[in-house]
Each structure stands twice: as C-alpha cells, then as structure tokens.
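Entry 14. Ran structure prediction on the chain below.
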Amino acid sequence: MSSRAPVTGYLFIALAAVLWGTLGIVSRIILESGVEALELSFWRATIAGGLFAAHAIRRGRVRVERRDWPAVVGFAVVGVAVFYVSYLFAVRTGGAALAAILLYTAPAWVAVASALWLHESLTGRKVSAITLTLVGVSFVALGASRTGGIRVGAAAIGWGLLSGLAYASYYLFGKRYFARYEAATLFMYVLPLGALLLLPGVHFAPKSGATWGWIAYVSIVTTYVALQCYEAGLRRVEATRAVTVATLEPVVASALAYVVWGEAWGPLGYVGAGLVLGGVMLMAGERT
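Output, structure tokens:
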C-alpha cells in the first residue's frame, strides 16, 4: 500500500455509504406496507445473490476452496441472517436515523479485531478517530428527540448495536477473502445461504407493484451495486479506515429520514453527527 491510501479507494467506500444510507427510509416504506423484516431480508439476499451468481458465472469465477467454506458459511450467518434482520428491527423500533447511527459502532469492533487477526496497526490516530466516532454516536443517541420521530429504547439500542457488530464482519471477512476471490464469487454463495437460513421464519405477504419496486431497489442498488463499490474500495483501503470512512452512511441516512419522515435530533444529536464526520476525516487523513 502506498504512503497514502488511494483517493479512489475512499471514493468507492463513500459511494457505497451513500447508497447504504438510502436503505433505512426505503426499508421503512416496505415494512409499513405490511412486509415483515424477515421477508424483506429474504428477498434482498435472494435477488442480490442471483445477480452475483450471474456475474460470477459470466466471468467464470465460481470456485471456492474447500478450506474457505467454513468462513463462507459463518459469514452467511452473521453478515446476512443476523445483520439484515437486526438492522431492519433497529429501523422498526427506533427509526431509520437512530438505526443508521448505532450501526456505526462497527469501527470499534473492526479496529480491535483487525489488530488481533489482520495484523493492522492500531495507531494513536486510529484510536482517536474511533473514539471521536463512538462519542458522536453516543451524543446522537442521547440527543434523539422523541417528538421528532426517533424512539430511543432498549430494543432500538440493542438491535442497533447488534447490527453494528454484525456489520463489522463485512470488513473483516472482506479484507481477508477479497484478496482470494472477487465479491461476486463470494456473495453468489453467501447471500443464498443467508436466505435459506431465514426462509423457515418467513411469512410471505401480498405486495403491490410499488412494494416490489422498492424491494428491487434494496436488492439491486443498496446490495448488489453498493457491495461492488465496497469491494473496490476495500481492496485499496485498510479495513479500519474503510469502516470509518463509511460512517458517512448514517449522516446520509439521518438527513433523508428527516426530510422524508421528520425524524429529528436535539442539539446534542447534531453535535454528535459532526463528531462522526470528524472521525471520518481524521481516519481518511492518516498516512500508513
């Protein structure tokens, strides 16, 4: 890696973050139409998995080494079944803005795990950036306004923190296995496996054409396209930096939640959002 991580890596991660930032409001539209979180997660994994399979087959990149299958299955459990469902329940119980902010406790999990398993250095600047981000997350949670459509409770915080822990697995798994495989090769297996894990609990609801359109958006734009951008960025940027730069996602998600649903923070929440952005800039400016 060069003395400064390539700018293109940060741009790819930022684009993925913007696309993911739209997930909360679109998911809420789908959930309010009568589709349950498990069903939405199932369709998201199934449709995106089919797209990745077509991509991998077209490129002739479908083989996964036997030694890597335990990691692939484990990631299907944590990165698909647990992550998709916990994030949607966080949106349902606390609103899109709070769910997106709590998702970004992930930098702390990534930094510690990267130091232990990926042998990435845990520098003072990284610790400062992570601390700034987590303090910002705390301020947002404390400053959330009940009258503004954000509901802070044990369930919302619990689901949000669980989604952050599961989300960290994307950076840890990706940093190790994207060096061996293309994203399409991995996700053509990971996503359908996750869908199969969810299937026993799915109750299929009747859906309008508009609802199917939103489900397609979640599957194609916020999953297939966003993960392609994420892979391109993660190949160029350390896992700890990548997950911190991607904290642009909750800022985008919160802004959209305010415009569409009227979800607002108190003054402390806006200070927290500023601290999250500060953590992003501090991490992105570090030299290796």
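DSSP finds 13 helices and no strands in the chain. Will compare against last week's run tomorrow.
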